[in-house]
Amino acid sequence: MIEKTDLSFERAVLIGIVTREQDEDKLDEYLDELEFLTYTAGGEVIKRFTQKMDVPNPKTFIGSGKMEDVHQFVKEEEIGAVIFDDELSPAQQKNIEKILKCKILDRTGLILDIFAQRAKTSYARTQVELAQYEYLLPRLAGMWTHLERQRGGIGMRGPGETEIETDRRIVRDKISLLKKKLATIDKQMEVQRGNRGQLVRVALVGYTNVGKSTLMNVISKSDVFAENKLFATLDTTVRKVVIRNLPFLLSDTVGFIRKLPTQLVESFKSTLDEVREADLLLHVVDISHPNFEEHIDSVNQILTEIEAIGKPTLMVFNKIDAYKPEKLDEDDLITEKTSAHYSLKEWKKTWMNRLGDNVLFISALNKENLEDFRRKVYEAVREIHITRFPYNNFLYPEYDKYGEKK
Ligand SMILES: Nc1nc2c(ncn2[C@@H]2O[C@H](COP(=O)(O)OP(=O)(O)OP(=O)(O)O)[C@@H](O)[C@H]2O)c(=O)[nH]1
Ligand SMILES: [Mg+2]
């Protein structure tokens, strides 16, 4: 595994910009998420810097005055990492590093770092490593100045272009090696998937931290790692589940996020094969999150990217126990009623109504409405099952509660 930026106990500041497409409220929400990502990576956010601009500065992303403020703060407060919400170009990253003289990360770098920390199996590690090298390649020149500065002193001449070229070649070789390694594992996995027989395959998909693994555990009585941090799951777990008389395969996999780095989507292609090859998707949503609608869009966008959109899908709105609409007093005639004030009942009448029967409202944690969940999943799986195997003998005999055959 290549070096990762260690953010453990690191004091960090966040930087984001307000643009025409992204007003202050939106930026706030995005920075909340970036703060959660930083916390997941082990860092602590001390301050946020924001700036209004039409277009980012091509050299330093934010303007020079603002950069000076950040510089002062970094010096005075002993900040170890400065994290940008947007993707920085390799040149921007290099320039900013020169000014601030501390770790500079963008959103992609931060997400890659979390993936690197969390990858447990050699398969996940290989995929992350490939993504890291792809990210590193165009940034190599910048990295050298970094090393140069760190070592400094006598006898340390700046690296010539040739050394950077050598480095690029090494990284390129490494990338093609990792790709070959992944291709071999992919073949093995394909065979494994083929061996699973003809059972209907169901995949849990959704934004990170919405409760996919918790739901998997509840439904399949398994023990998949779940926690209140982002990207708890990086590997796919597949379990055989039986509802009433119907067996099927349920898989839990990596969560999605807004602007998931393309390097990661690409190198996690085979992990995501499970989603691509699924017959039915359970799109899990954290309805207690203020941005849940945007999360749905991000997930759909990634599903489109991996060519998994348009499959039969059940929308599973989870965490109903934690859903608290904002209060609107009856005599309050000034505050405009927005979706933040909707009760669950009101939500059901919105665009959710158009989803017809394909919606569910549950709490995986409190095991609320799980009967409804089982029934709807059963019906959807059965539908697929009987169209695929009209003369099928997979359906187990149904037993009543006394254990008698029906
Ligand atoms: N209040 C509430 N919390 C829940 C519910 N379901 C899950 N959680 C919590 O949400 C957090 C994330 O749960 P996970 O199951 O790890 O979520 P995930 O979707 O698998 O996350 P990633 O693997 O990171 O993509 C945990 O702290 C869970 O305890 C629920 O119904 N209600
Ligand atoms: Mg998970």
TrEMBL record:
Gene name of the encoded protein: hflX
Chief subcellular location: cytoplasm
Origin superkingdom: Bacteria
Role noted for this protein: GTPase that associates with the 50S ribosomal subunit and may have a role during protein synthesis or ribosome biogenesis.
PANTHER family: GTP-BINDING PROTEIN 6-RELATED, GTP-BINDING PROTEIN HFLX
Subunit structure comment from the entry: Monomer. Associates with the 50S ribosomal subunit.
Cited Gene3D superfamilies: 6.10.250.2860, GTPase HflX, N-terminal domain (3.40.50.11060), P-loop containing nucleotide triphosphate hydrolases (3.40.50.300)
GO terms for cellular component: cytoplasm
UniProt-annotated binding residues for GTP: 206-213, 231-235, 252-255, 318-321, 363-365
Organism, as annotated: Christiangramia crocea
Cofactor: Mg(2+)
Binding site for Mg(2+): S213, T233
Family: Belongs to the TRAFAC class OBG-HflX-like GTPase superfamily. HflX GTPase family.
Protein name from the UniProt record: GTPase HflX
Cell location: Cytoplasm
